[in-house]
Amino acid sequence: MTMSRIATALTLAGVAFVFWFGTGYLFDPQSMATGFGLPAWPTGEAEAFLNIKGVRDVVTGLVLLTLLVLGQRYALGITMAVMALIPLGDGLTIVRWDGDLTAAITIHWATMAAMLVAAALLLLEHRTATTKSTTPAPVTA
């Protein structure tokens, strides 16, 4: 049961963070962008790209929250494992463009690690439940 609670807590924390970041990029993109880790950001009309990041983050949170609320924990585990590619890619982009390595590691790759831990717990939870349901009852004479 503890594994399930940890997986749920990690999922909810992740959802809260991506909602916070996402709405920040939608409503105040320039102030949010400074903490991302890249050395420069689009300005003027190109600033719209920051809103795209906001939409991506909010939708990511909605997908995870929907699967959690619907009780689709196995699908949630798979989805989180796949979506962990987003912060991996963000961190790699920061490194590629000579951004802040500390931000790449402590923000993006730490997020990826937390997502992978939650995904592993959710998938392990499913495996444990499946094993218990398919184990035959002991035969007594």
From TrEMBL:
Keyword Transmembrane helix: yes
TM stretches of this protein: 6-27, 62-86, 106-124
Keywords: Membrane, Transmembrane, Transmembrane helix
Domain of life: Bacteria
Record InterPro entries: DUF4267
Pfam families from the UniProt entry: DUF4267
Protein's name in the database: DUF4267 domain-containing protein
